[in-house]
Structure formats: C-alpha cells, structure tokens
Amino acid sequence: MIDYKALFNNAPNPYLILDSSLNIVEVNQAYLNATMTKRDMLLGRYLFDVFPANPEELEANGVSNLQASMNDVLKYRKADTMAVQKYDIPKRDGGGGFEERFWCSVNSPVLGDGGEVVLIIHNAQDVTDFIQTKPESNETHESLKVHVNHLENKIYQSAQSLQEANRKLRIANEAKSTFLTSMSHELRTPLNSILGFTQILIRDVSIGKEQKEELGIIYRSGKHLLNLINDVLDLTKIETGKMTLHEKTFDLYSFLREVSELFHSRTVEKGLLFTMEKDEKVPRYIKSDEGKLRQVLINLLGNALKFTESGRISLRVKLGNVTENSHELRFEVEDTGIGISSDYLEKIFEPFVQVSESVDKTAGTGLGLSISKKYIRLMGGNIEVVSKIGKGSLFQFEVLVGRAEASEIEVSQHSRKVVGIVPDQPTFRILVVDDVLESKKLLVKLLKNVGFEVNEASNGKQGVEVFESWHPHLIWMDMRMPVMDGYEATKQIKKTELGQKTVIIALTAHAFEEERQEILNTGCNDFVSKPYVEEEIFMIMEKHLGIQFVYEDQDLSLLNVPKNLEAILTPDNLTKIEKELKDELLNTVTTLDQEGCLKIIERIHVANPGVASALRMLVDNYQFEELDDILNKKSSLEK
After folding, report:
1. Domain range holding 619?
2. Is the pLDDT of residue 552 over 80?
C-alpha cells in the first residue's frame, strides 16, 4: 500500500496543502526548508497571516498575485500556473526584516464529490538562484517554461492521486463509524452494570468501611475506563480538533489524593515506592477541566507504572506564574523505569505510538500521550519529556487554571443519595424495557429501592404489551433490542393517545450526537447514556414527572411533607413488617443507635419500601422519640 503521507513529506519540491478557507492543513519538509519555518508555526493558520506582504517593498507583489491566483482556483475550480513572482519573505533567523526570494507557483484544486474545492495543493518552486543569474536568452526562457509545464503536470497527477486517496479515506471513515457505533454499545453495556451495582454496594449500610473503600477504587477505576472508551469512540472529535473544556471549581487537594490512592496500591503490588509532593503554595481550590486533568495524570502515571519494575514513581505539583485571575500549575511525573531512547522521544506524542519500543504492542491503544498533549494544550500549557535508557523518564507539563474559592464549588442535592420518595405524592408506575438481564436488574433494583412500582420487559414487543395493560407513567426504553427495538416500540406507543402523555426515556450506549438526535426524533422525551450514575436517573425523573425525592441527611423541615408521618406509618402498613424485624427496630431505637436502625430499615425496605422510606426519614433526623412512640403504639394495638 502506498504511503501517501511519506511520499508527500519527502518530495523534493516544496508543497503546501490548504483548505477552502486558505488555512494551512499540511506542509512538507522541503517547504519548511525553503521558508525556514517550523511545522507548528504553519499548521492551522491562515496562509497570508503567516506570509504577509512587505509594506515597504511595493515591487514585491507576489503575495497579492498569489491571493488572486487562489481566488481563481476557488472560483473556476481549475489549476492556475503563476508566472515567476518576487516575494519578500520574513527572515526566520531572529534578526527581523525580509529577504528577497523568487518562486514559480502552481495552485491545483482537489474537488469533493459535489465538485466543490475541498483542498488546494500549492507548489512553490524556488527559482531564486536561477533568476539572480539573469537568464536572458530565449533558450533559457524556453527551458524555464518547459520546466514549469512539467511541474504543472506533476501537480495535476498528484492532485488526482490525492483525490482518489480521499475517496478511499471517506469509505474507511464510514466503516470506522459503523464499527465505533457497534463497539460503543458492546463496551458501555457491561460497564453500566459494573458501575451501577458498585454504587448500590457502596451505599449499603451493612458493608464495612474497608470494603467501601475498595469498592470506591473499583468505581473510580470503572469511571476511568469509561473515560478511555469515550476517547477511543470519539476519535472523530479528536482528529478534527473539536474538543472543548468543561471547567468547574473543584478541590485540587482532594483531587490529588484520589489520583494518588488509585495508584498507591498498584505500586505496592509491584514493590515500588509511590510519592506525591505538593508545594505548600499550590492553591486548594481551582477552576479547570477536572476530567481532562485527571486523565492526563492517569495516563502519565499509568505509563510510569507499566515501564517501572523497581525503584519509585513520583508525582510533584508546583505553583508557577501567578496573575490576577489565574495560576500556572506545574506537574511532574518521574519514574526509575526503562527509559525512552532519544530517537523515539520524537514519536511518543503521535497517535497509536507506544511509549516504549520494547513494549508489547497489545498493551494499550497508544492514544494516551497523544490525547494528553492535546488536553494540555487546550488548558493553555505544553508537555516535555526528558529520559535516559535504563535510568527512567521525567514528564513535565504546565496548565493554566482559574482562581477559585470553596464557596464556588457546586453543591447539588442531586449528588447526594436518594433514599426515598417524599410522602403524599401520586404512586408512579415505572416500566423498564431492556434485553440485557444485568442492566435491567440494576435499574429495577435502583427504582424499587426508593419506593417506585416497577414492571419490566425484555424487548420492545413485550414493552408495548405491558404499556397497553399496565399504563406506566414513565418508561425506561433501551434502544437496541431483539424482536422489536426501542425505536419501533417508542413509535408504536407514541401513536396512541395515552402514549403521547407517557414519558419515554431512552437508554442508549451510543456515543455519537447523530444517534442521539435520531432517538429524540422517534418520540423519546429524553435520553440517558450508558453507563449512567444513579443521580442521573433520579434527576431526569424529577425533571419529567415533577417528583420530589428524600435525600440522605436531609432536614425534614426543608421538605413539603406532613410533620406527622402517621399518614404513612399506619397500623395496616406497619403490620406488613415482620414482627421480628419490628421488635428488633424498637430495641435499637431505645439505644439511639442510628447505624443499627438504618441496617434494620434496609431489611424492611426489601418488602416495604414506602414504609422503610418514612422510617428512614425519622432516623436520619434523629427523631428517635417520635419513632419510639409510633412503634410502641402500633405494637400495643397488635396485641
């Protein structure tokens, strides 16, 4: 297979590729040599910002003629061969000023499927030496003309080859999109169950502190895996430079502690020493993209762990330049691993390149450092690496972060655990339609735990049947199922009068915006992406049903609920609790043991979620006396 990129870059003649807005998208080495520029100075910039006209030299009209030629190419969609032009090119030796060069240029369009100009190939043959010898003979003039014609033919042939390569690239991109769409679903669906059940276990009061810490590590690792999947599945966004920052205020100290905890146990397993050093001047609260900063550190620390068999791994954070509105944070990740050769250092930030030549090619995607570099640049910084074979590596980068205060951290009740439904609301019937048993079981358990009436179906056809007989208020609809998928099921339900009033929330493992728009077009009211966190589920139900939830550690006085919970804790409801459980709860209440009460209420919750939610509200607010009165009164009535 022909490597067009290598062919282009190693061509002896200078080439420049522009988009239809005359922004530079690619340049070969011969062009860089001819203009004494660096690739980073050119890529992505407007051609005539990089090479402006010299206002002091009116005879150097090459720039204006080049602009006219480019406009003709865009207008007529044909190649344009320019006469020899005089250019005053800015000197790149740091001394300032311009130097005189003569170029013979050919500008050739690359057309898209619709005949529009998508690229322009600019070949600037440097004929300065030839012109400065003042060739005046007709023979020399004809020789130059033949040479120009030959160049034009070569450019045309190259344009045709590039157009064919673009066609093949479009076909490959379509295949890639189809593959990524499928992989999105296959990867996200099991991860949804892993993260979901981990959340449920973390919030189980019967689980000890040590186990919860271990579950927390599993959950954070799962979230990181999800972030990696998102990056791989969203390669289009990375390739087109459409990434954006999602900045918010967060606690940097807690952030660093979490990252350190994630790697501490893993370094201990390998017999390594892990240290995290933070300069005392580093601010605690900053405004930045927490997710991207986390991924950069995890990528760098993960590589350090992978390539270090003995010694230590260090994470250091220092404060750099400080302005009125921002801080410069400097991060260092150092290891005593195998090191990276000097020749290989130039390649490691390219996509799909492993950090070490000796690494197993199956170990990772090779995207980590490439993504990290893009993220760091988005955050206003740069990354450098120093390494020596057999001694280890030191990665250094800086980012600009905003100043922030603790009061700016968003504290939402939705980030707290939902423990029940506020009393005196309608009874909401919820239908879960999903063909994956684990995913369905997770959501059903989550909803039943807070007191919803829940029914379930395993495909779209069953979902429509349950809807017709049970009339749910809200349907959680997986979109990719056998027999009948969620798209068709939604359409059938929304055709009915009752269906138009029924809220349908799509559950999708698709990562691309176009699929999400298609979902909404079928009639779904909203969607949630897998894997989800339970807060998302309850937030969207609150949004569409107007339901009020009871949150952990919430002050009852802030809720619109009856002060006397006897409306829920009626004799009929309390007699549904097993006598042994109720007696056990009463004994625990008398000792004012809140944790013990909550453990018993969790057991009551299995069969009586509504009653359990009301009991939990009293215990959460330390209303033991009222709870004791209610339980004693009801117990005496049962005798």
Report:
1. 562-638
2. no
The last residue of one of the domains, among 408, 430, 465, is 408
Q: How far is CA 239 from CA 159, 301, 350, 482, 498, in A?
A: 23, 24, 12, 34, 45
Q: Which tens digits make up the pLDDT trace of 440-474?
A: 888 998 898 888 999 999 999 999 999 999 999 99
DSSP 8-state code for residue 560: S
Task: Write the pLDDT tens digit of every residue in 89-104.
Answer: 666 555 566 677 777 7
Report the C-alpha gap between 68 and 72 in whole angstroms.
6
CA dihedral 401, 403, 406, 408 (to 10 degrees): -90
What are the φ/ψ torsions at residue 424 (nearest 5 degrees)? 60, 35
**Pairing mode of beta strands 549-551, 418-421:** antiparallel
Identify any residues that bridge with 477 across adjacent strands, giving them in sequence order. Answer: 433, 506
Residues 295 and 357 in one domain: yes
Q: Let me know: does 461 contact 489? Beta carbons within 8 Å.
A: yes
597 secondary structure, DSSP code:
H
Q: Three-state DSSP class for 334?
A: strand
Weakest mean pLDDT among 18-22, 364-368, 437-441: 364-368
User: 358's torsion region: left (phi>0), alpha (psi -120 to 50) or beta?
Assistant: alpha
Selection from 19-33, 151-165, 360-374, 498-512 with the highest mean pLDDT: 19-33
Does some domain include residue 183? no
Q: Which residues contact 13 (CB under 8 A, 6 or more apart)?
A: 30, 123, 125, 151, 154
Tell me how crowded residue 548 is: count the other CB atoms within 10 A of its CB: 14
Per-residue confidence at 406, pLDDT binned at 50, 70, 90?
confident
Q: Backbone phi, then psi, for 45, in 5-degree steps?
A: -100, 155
User: Same domain, yes or no, for 278 and 325?
Assistant: yes
**C-alpha–C-alpha distance, residues 638 and 266, integer Å:** 57
How sure is the predictor about 215, in pLDDT bands with cuts at 50, 70 and 90?
confident
Q: What is the number of domains present in the chain?
A: 4
Tens-digit pLDDT profile for residues 553-569: 554 444 444 444 555 67
d(CA 96, CA 94): 6
**342 and 455 part of one domain:** no
Task: CATH number of the domain at 59, please.
Answer: 3.30.450.20
**Do residue 67 and residue 102 come from a single domain?**
yes
Strands (DSSP E) contained in 412-522 are 418-421, 429-433, 453-457, 474-478, 503-508
Residue 526 domain-assigned? yes
451 within domain boundaries: yes
Beta strands in 458-496 (DSSP E): 474-478
CATH number for the domain spanning 401: value is: 3.30.565.10
Model's pTM, two decimal places? 0.45
Q: What gap in Å lies between CA 328 and CA 322, rounded to an integer?
A: 6
Q: Which of 1-5, 277-281, 447-451, 529-533 has the lowest mean pLDDT?
A: 1-5
| More confident site: 145 or 456 | 456
* Minimum mean pLDDT range among 130-144, 171-185, 190-204: 130-144
How far lies 267's CA from each of 277, 313, 401, in Å?
16, 8, 29
